[in-house]
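Researcher: First entry.
Model:
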Amino acid sequence: MTLVEAYVGLNKICLPDDLCKLPASISTGLSEAIALNTSGNVFKTQDGEVEISGSPTEKDILSWAVKLGMEFNAIRSKYEFLFVFPFNSEKKRSGVAVTYQLGLESCTY
């Protein structure tokens, strides 16, 4: 499976050549959303190569986010996971409740 189309707002972006044209705020937001809402994992081997685990759909989305510059472990380490809502095939949705640790403050989403 391969990600062949992506839309930002109502604008289709062509992959993979136009990834660098995304504004930093959009690629950062996408990276955070993808990293927090997956049961897959991204890690580097001893050789420095990126390995991605998860379902075929998760692997494709995570590999796209890695191309965007996502730092999977850095993003996830900033949050404390309170509850994970697994994907529901009937409702076609999933989600996560997290607390963001910012210095001494924390924000729950």
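Researcher: Second entry.
Model:
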Amino acid sequence: MSTTPEAPTGGADAPVSKPNQMFKNCWGCRVISGGGLILSGAYVFMAARRVMRQGGPTSMGTVAQITFAASLAAWGLVVLADPVGKAQRKDNVRTVLK
């Protein structure tokens, strides 16, 4: 019978870690990481375009590379926009059943 409190297990009630909270509030951190992801997506896209521009065949690898580049750029936009926590719950809207 120990009286020491148990460590949180990481459920829904777990507090947000300090580095995660700092990243959400730091505009410069979001610009650097989001911009880096967008630029890396542009680099991967230009590498795929270079193969096609030189007259190489469009293979599944090239299509996968372009898709990966688009996903990197989209991830960068999400980091820049930071949509987490911006949606507000609408408590004032209630439906009345008659």
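Model: Note on the second entry: The chain has a mean pLDDT of 77.
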